[in-house]
Amino acid sequence: MVSRVIPVDPFDLVIFGGTGDLARRKILPGLFRRFQSGQMPQGCRVIGAARTELDEGGYRKFVSEALTEFVPEGKRDEETVRGFLDTLFYVSVDAKGEGGWKDLAGLMREGVIRAFYFSVAPALFGDIAERLHEHGITNRESRIVVEKPFGRDLESARALNAVLARHFDETQIYRIDHYLGKETVQNLMAVRFANILFEPLWNAQYIDHVQITVAETVGVGGRGSYYDKSGAMRDMVQNHMMQLLCLIAMEPPYKFDPDAVRDEKLKVIRALDAVPLDNIVRGQYVAGQDNPGYLEDVGNPASRTESYIAMKVQVSNWRWKGTPFYLRTGKRLRARTSEICVTFKEPPHSIFEQEEGWRENVLVIRLQPNEGMNLKVMIKEPGPGGMRLTEVPLDMSFADALGENGTDIPDAYERLIMDVIRGNQTLFMRGDEVEAAWAWTDPIIAAWEARGERPRPYDPGTSGPEDALMLLHRDGRRWREIRE
Ligand code: NAP
Which residues contact 377 (CB under 8 A, 6 or more apart)? Predict the structure, then answer.
């Protein structure tokens, strides 16, 4: 199936932090792929901005190297790379100083969309917003994209929202959570709201429980000092996992419109119960498999920051009362996988004689690797020998089913950046959503800090601390195995 590409309107996209890691690994390769697909028409320009002194040639060389490193060889040809490099410009600006801002103002064109990607530390957001305004670089139609982390608690998120609101209307602010740009995540909405099949069953009467897992095999790596101030709760649960939970739990929006969707997500966040500490397991990986442990990785032997968290969350509304959502995420686990697993209840009465217990229908939504969905259904075991039941998967791997050559699924960043240019905020977090998520997160963190417990140690290459198993066992359930 060949996907239809609708070109966007011409734009100037300024990437503050255009020489940074995120720009190199994600933003620029993503833009290249959109250029290659024909979605960026003639007249689109990408302007790198950072303090490093570079001329245009220097920046194009930098980007060319990034493409070599992060776009597979078979996915780029010289001519397209050259064409993309021609769209690139560079200005040296200091977010905290005056240097370079007049040059940037002089570079901007009238009559095209102006977008500004703040791919810098959040501490610089206010300075950049202020200077863009001061130098008349933004207008009412301009958009800004801001990266995570959006605050580290409710107070700092409010402060950040207030800083941005000084110069930008909420309709101009795109708070990016790349999980929302993943094809499967959007498909979750399509599956729920474009089919009659699931929605009648999508509630506590028919769904036993939901598991959301984001497992990584890597440790904190070079991000140790940042991560140690954050931990799994702030780094993953408050944003990515909360967004996934919202898409599973939300009511149907009245239409697929940014505010209609975000209103429904906000209602879910507000319906989350406070989580007692007994429903939370926090862990830290220890040394093993030739790797140092968490404490060595972050260089802080006294650290109580969690590299793993598992929790049982309740959504208190009519639809979900009584159906728990189990969330877990961690580093240095057995496999790299992100998935949502919706386990339906058993039929109320079995007409078949089953030797073992009845097996439930399970819908697994895989975000990575191999984006796709898989529904486990019961069928008759083929052949003679009476009515024996067996479980089979109805498997839909998006790459097999939809992608050109099976590998054509766009990266989350490319999709989201094009949404910014199109002016579509549906897959971006609104300010009140982020604040509500922190309002739920803050008391949980405050409670464990007050208790002062150390996270439970766990061996690398496992599925996390033993205690996390108990979180489900005591409810008569078990985690889905972590595997690729
Ligand atoms: P990074 O590699 O440290 O890059 C920071 C960028 O900001 C560099 O281009 C740097 O260039 C520029 N910069 C620093 N101070 C500046 C100033 N005063 N004025 C103008 N430019 C300045 O950081 P990153 O990993 O790309 O992360 C960027 C943002 O994305 C952060 O908010 C981060 O939390 C977020 N993020 C990153 C990732 C990731 O995978 N990397 C993932 C999710 C979110 P100069 O030194 O030349 O000025």
Answer: 361, 391, 392, 394
